[in-house]
């Protein structure tokens, strides 16, 4: 069992840290929210007073933060993780951020003898709560091996996908597929309803055929019922579409559908739906046809 420092106890981090504590790891966590710290204590972890306090004794540090500025603040800034932990410590950044920041963090960590992995996840809140996440890991193979006992507590599909930053590129690919499928399911609902066909019944058939997907399986009922509490917020998906488009530019490729989906997600945010679940892309698609669910 390891001493784990866990920074970022939000929608995802709270259940993840609780699973690690439940598996017998010695978890010290920190978040800006007092509520989040109380949940960690209730799950058997220790609420630290700041980042340094959470990670000072850690053998493994896990970060689960919103975006790259928060990772830079927590990991790279003076008094942050790299300033505090001992050489040899393993840092798994499980946030979804741009690949170049993951590479920069790995380089800065390497200079201090700290082993860094980018390990973003897919599976959403349900995946975090059920310890069934998919984890895509970039970094050195031996560091991946060393971190595997931690990842195995959190997820079911755990794959080393390449060097530093590769985990984030795989996550960007994941997010463009997820966004695209949400957009198309939204269009299917609008078409069915506008044609006078019951959308719930129609999507049930789709879910059992070639169009079937995890999104149709897990989200079709809540979408038809217009239940959009997050889950995964439109604001975070907007960030991820930006990461995907920047990665495409970096790789010199054109991703036209990703560009279109990114604009729909941006519209959702501009319409004031940033705090809703990303399935609220339905509201944007409905608006385009002058319809309201
Ligand atoms: P969240 O906003 O619920 O949680 C982030 C937490 O980080 C918050 O509790 C916040 O208080 C804390 N935080 C921010 N700055 C901090 C700082 N300087 N020090 C300490 N704590 C700080 O976000 P989330 O939904 O848990 O997502 C976290 C990451 O995981 C994001 O990168 C997101 O894109 C990714 N992700 C989310 C989901 C999902 O379904 N929610 C799924 C897969 C991946």
Automatic annotation (TrEMBL):
Enzyme class, spelled out: oxidoreductase
Active site residues per record: 171
Residues of the 3-hydroxyisobutyrate dehydrogenase-like NAD-binding domain: 165-284
Domain 6-phosphogluconate dehydrogenase NADP-binding: 3-162
Pfam families xrefs: NAD_binding_11, NAD_binding_2
Documented EC number(s): 1.1.1.60
Keywords from the named record: NAD, Oxidoreductase
InterPro entries named in the record: 3-OH-isobutyrate_DH-rel_CS (IPR002204), 6-PGluconate_DH-like_C_sf (IPR008927), 6PGD_dom2 (IPR013328), 6PGDH_NADP-bd (IPR006115), HIBADH-like_NADP-bd (IPR029154), HIBADH-related (IPR015815), NAD(P)-bd_dom_sf (IPR036291), Tartro_sem_red (IPR006398)
SUPFAM superfamilies (UniProt xref): 6-phosphogluconate dehydrogenase C-terminal domain-like, NAD(P)-binding Rossmann-fold domains
GO biological-process terms attached to the record: glyoxylate metabolic process; organic acid catabolic process
Domain of life: Bacteria
Molecular function (Gene Ontology), one example: NADP binding
Record-stated family: Belongs to the HIBADH-related family.
PANTHER family in the cross-refs: 3-HYDROXYISOBUTYRATE DEHYDROGENASE-LIKE 1, MITOCHONDRIAL-RELATED
Protein name: 2-hydroxy-3-oxopropionate reductase
Origin species: Amycolatopsis carbonis
